[in-house]
Amino acid sequence: MTFEQTPASARRPIRELPDELISQIAAGEVVERPASVVRELVDNAMDAGARSITLRLMGGGTRLISVEDDGGGIAPDELATALKRHATSKIGNLDELESVMTMGFRGEALAAINSVSELTLLSRMDGQPTAFALDGRTGEIRPAARAVGTTVEVKELFFSTPARRKFLKSDSTELAHCIEAVRRHALARPDVGFAIWHEGKLVEQWRVHPGAAGLEQRLADVLGEEFVAQSIAVDYHAGPLKVMGRAGLPDAARSRPDHQFAYVNGRFVRDKVVMHGARSAYEDVLHGHKQPAYALFMEIDPTLVDVNVHPTKIEVRFRDSRAVHQAVRHALENALAAPRAHQLSDEAPNTGRAFELQNGPAPQPLPESATWQQSGMAFERPGPASFNAPAYKPADFVRPRVDGDRAMADLKALWKPPEPSDDLGAHERSSPAWLQGAHALKPSVQASPTAPASESTPLPEGDWPLGRAVAQLHGVYILAENKQGLVVVDMHAAHERIVYERLKNQLHTPGSEAPRIASQPLLIPATFAAHPTEVATAEACAEALEQLGLEISPLSAKTLAVRAVPTSLAQGDAVELARSVLAELAQHDASTVVQRAQNEILATMACHGAVRANRRLTLDEMNALLRQMEETERSDQCNHGRPTWRQMTMRDLDALFLRGR
């Protein structure tokens, strides 16, 4: 194939394009597929104050899209104006554009849709004796029969641009996209009813749910009862920003991000700041590459967000993106922090029999001074009458790889374990650090000055959510009984989370000096050709890089030199490390990047400081671990996102043995 260049003598003059061609070009941005038309028309219906919206489709939306609403309607003398480009009633000046709260405002949708389809606009206002219909092709207006509201019929989409129609998928695929477009609107407006018909059959319907509980009921209708049951409420306020909704539990994470819905002032958005903030909140509670599920509704001063970024209005720009990122992250972190074990105490046992925990000495909770060190761990050996099971090695118990001496420099730079108190007895000194003070008949260890004081009061024995320990299985799992039935605890995963959260609290104590990761200077600096953005980031984030153990300085306008790297990464690729850190600092807030790197080191410390498998624990020690789990934030998952405990109710156990059948 050859391409011939047009000679200069045959050049075409510059001229204005006809209005119809302009509209068809604009339709390429606004109208991508039938779902785009549905989204724009439903936006207009909601802006008109509709409380009931009906969508009728044929051929997946390619042959017919009809949106009927019971809103305020359009005056007869404004029908023809409504189909003109940049004609709207939503805004009139720049101030209104900067504080827009309506779904639509650009005035492009109807004109663009009319240019690539056969459009009919039928509307009636309150007080008018009859409705009027406008033919989009001829401009003819005629009387028609209709109740108060508006109907927009779009037939034969892309009939005037056949090439665009070739890019459409099958009818079933286009129908699915249309349903998804309405579903996004339905989640944000439980006070509006929606119905979707296809080929004369009702395929989806969401009824009106007024009142405070309407949002939760609409979430259950649209996303399913399972989503509501496996999620927790989010309610967070930070200055002019409010974040509400529901966050899916880590156990309910999905393989795809198809249950992630974020709204800004009622508008569905796909924003990198919001998505990254949500992902950061789930960072150390999700396993592998699982995707969280959430529905977040943000309310913010409209002057602090720019919605005039993209023709489809699905992208926004925040004036203070850092504040939005932090608000979303903190909202989800606060919601996910509470241990779910306390929910068990609020639930009545689902059996008809009485169930009481056996009496026994109440173990004391773990002391706040418990450290991550495991050196000198000496557990009491079981007596002759104990059951000596063969050693058990779980298949999924993988010990993390750590670069020995180099990693310790980073660990010590972040946190130093407190020295043991001199008044400890010999038995306390020989016990693991995390169990010192856990024995029922001994006083608790004096709290470390760096550890936050515990303000929680131990619950009465009958109210223990995780119950009382009864046995240890193969040195790996703790079996406990509570009012609901049987609780199985992975003791290493549970203790790993406890140590991790304690280290984070000690490290990030307000008013303390910012910790720094130990670094090692390079004998020969590693230089590389840098993008101007990388050079600017290295200069602006020099302090954050120093906290991470990196020293990166510019040699010229296009060259950077790596002069020091973290001690534990001294043998790695310094240039690749520098590029990845600079890229993350350029995209996200510096404090977030530093905190994430520090938490990764703390997670390594916690994993090595936690009690290991095949360790025999006494009942007092097992109960102490259960009590600490009930008080520790995010104790339902370990640092790697694996669950730490599971509940088997009496009904579950009865079903295993076919009782009652």
| Unreliable residue runs | 348-405, 414-457
Average pLDDT works out at: 78
Rg result: 32 Å
**Relative strand content:** 15-25%
The helix content, as a percent range, equals 25-40%
End-to-end separation in angstroms reads 77 Å
Largest sheet: 8 strands, mixed
Total count of strands: 22
Give the CA-based shape: globular
Strands of the widest sheet, in order across it, are 5-4-3-6-2-1-7-8
| Structural class computed from helices and strand pairing | alpha+beta
Number of helices: 21
List the helices and strands and how they pair.
Layout: H1 19-30, H2 34-47, E1 52-58, E2 64-69, H3 79-82, H4 94-98, H5 109-115, E3 118-124, E4 131-135, E5 141-144, E6 149-155, H6 162-165, H7 171-188, E7 193-198, E8 201-206, H8 214-223, H9 225-229, E9 231-238, E10 241-248, E11 260-264, E12 267-268, H10 272-281, E13 294-299, E14 305-306, E15 317-318, H11 321-337, H12 341-346, H13 404-414, H14 426-430, E16 468-473, E17 477-481, E18 485-490, H15 491-507, E19 519-529, H16 532-540, H17 542-547, E20 551-556, E21 559-566, H18 574-587, H19 590-609, H20 619-631, E22 645-649, H21 650-656
Parallel strand pairs: 1-7, 11-13
Antiparallel strand pairs: 1-2, 2-6, 3-4, 3-6, 4-5, 7-8, 9-10, 10-13, 11-12, 14-15, 16-17, 17-18, 18-22, 19-21, 20-21
Descriptors for this entry?
19% strand; 661 residues; 22 strands
Structure description:
- The strands form five sheets. An eight-stranded mixed β-sheet has the order 5-4-3-6-2-1-7-8. Strands 9-10-13-11-12 form a five-stranded mixed β-sheet, with helices on both faces. A four-stranded antiparallel β-sheet has the order 16-17-18-22.
- It has 21 helices and 22 strands.
- The radius of gyration is 32 Å and the shape is globular.
- The longest helix is centred in the last third of the chain and has 20 residues, at about 590-610.
- It is α+β, with helices and mostly antiparallel strands.
